[in-house]
Amino acid sequence: MPDTRKTIVDTARALFYERGYHATSLAQIQKACGVNGGSIYHFFKSKEALLIAVLENYLKQLEAEVMAPAFATTENPRERVFAVLDGYRRMLVESEFAAGCPIGNLALELPDAGPEVRQLIESNFDAWCGFIADCFEGAHVADGETRARLARLALTVMEGGILQARGRRSIGPFDEAVDQFRDYVDRVLDSVDEVDGHAVPSG
Amino acid sequence: MPDTRKTIVDTARALFYERGYHATSLAQIQKACGVNGGSIYHFFKSKEALLIAVLENYLKQLEAEVMAPAFATTENPRERVFAVLDGYRRMLVESEFAAGCPIGNLALELPDAGPEVRQLIESNFDAWCGFIADCFEGAHVADGETRARLARLALTVMEGGILQARGRRSIGPFDEAVDQFRDYVDRVLDSVDEVDGHAVPSG
DNA sequence: GTCTATATTAAGATAGAC
DNA sequence: GTCTATCTTAATATAGAC
Fold first, then answer.
1. Distance between the alpha carbon (CA) of A109 and the C1' atom of D6, Å
2. What is the pLDDT of residue B201?
3. Each residue's pLDDT tens digit, B52-99
4. What's the whole-model pTM score?
5. Do A187 and B182 touch (CB under 8 A)?
6. Does a structural domain hold residue B85?
7. Domain-embedded: residue B69
8. What residue of B is the nearest CA neighbor of A203?
9. Residue A98: which CATH number?
10. Closest residue (Cα, C1') to D2
11. Which residue, A12, A99, A32, A101, is CA-closest to A62?
12. In this structure, is residue A111 part of a structural domain?
């Protein structure tokens, strides 16, 4: 039994990812699916409804598709963070800088999206940061706020690195950004007070 | 003498900035300009040609519009970097997160743009980083590579912070990212070997 | 549930009068 | 150099046969 709905969501996901939301037409999605008619409207009432399904799919698949493969490469919690970042690096390189972070792309491309879309973008960011923060917990960062801040910085650096890499069509800026993040993590965690586990910096 | 060409470029610049390139039609630009006909084609042979003019305008105006106002707020070279970042913060807040970094938006939205567009995006990034690197020179960072790396990190953090702020419709992530960058700059510059001016970290 | 056909709207782009 | 009018294409979306 071919699950057409799933095929449509997967195809739309891939095309939105590589070309952007506005630049992808429903006709292109249909063609890539093999379905020839206005069949998308049997499952989704609008292009935005399809986008919402795609964002729900990202959220649901985040652990299995992004985190689990990265975590499988190392047991070291701190290194798991960098393994996740390396996954995005690989996608950048393999796609020749077409594919960066799907959620980041949409966050910038759809500044006036509806509330459902915005909420799902935020939920995807939150979930991503949650997994990364858990890695820092495994790395014995006792303070929850410090873990959360480092996780959000990981996202900041990743998105900024991807943006520059895509703008320059070079992986250099991404690698440099990750190196700088690693340097910062080392400095912060080295300055953690071992007694109560609180980081020294205030900011 | 009304300079229609300039009006068109300025208007297109503003609309591309707030709505994105694909989401802005030439009809909208014409309407916002007050010019009613297909007059844009008298000056530009295509929408992409207009985009190129906009990117050239950004490059030309970078110093006057972005750097000079920020630099006017303080003589302290290190603080000038943060004054520049604060300028983007203001635009984010005043536009209610519609307007982030115009170049960053285009870098993500136009992954398969023509060579002229890509080159101009890169030139804008380079020019921006050049001004910021010069600030670090004024802050007595003797090593040119360290200055360049910090400048690119400033861009990374700014773009990543803007992206999250827009995704979440909150200035919090941007402020946090700037705080973390300040913390990193403090740590790096404090660890600089005062004798030869080389930073300690390898990365 | 999938197809063909089409409605509707809007996009980028052009022609030609003035 | 600016206008009206229009061409062409392609977008989202719908209707209705099968």
1. 32
2. 53
3. 999 999 999 999 999 999 999 999 999 999 999 999 999 999 999 999
4. 0.94
5. no
6. yes
7. yes
8. B179
9. 1.10.357.10
10. B39
11. A101
12. yes
DSSP states of B99-130 as a string? -S-HHHHHHHH-TT--HHHHHHHHHHHHHHHH
CA dist A160 → B64, B112, B126 (Å): 25, 19, 15
Segments forming the whole domain that contains residue A44: 4-190
Q: Within chain B, how many helices (H) and strands (E) appear?
A: 10, 0
User: Per the domain annotation, does A174 fall within a domain?
Assistant: yes
Q: Closest residue to D15 by CA to C1' distance? A: A38
- State the residue for tokens 């080392």: A186
| CB distance A154 to A96 below 8 Å | no
CA B173-B175-B180 angle, 5° bins = 95
Task: Give the length of chain B.
Answer: 203
**Other C-beta atoms lying within 10 Å of the C-beta of residue B25:** 12
Number of domains in chain A: 1
Q: What are phi and psi of A192, to 5 degrees?
A: -65, 135
**Backbone φ, ψ for residue A55 (5° rounding):** -65, -35
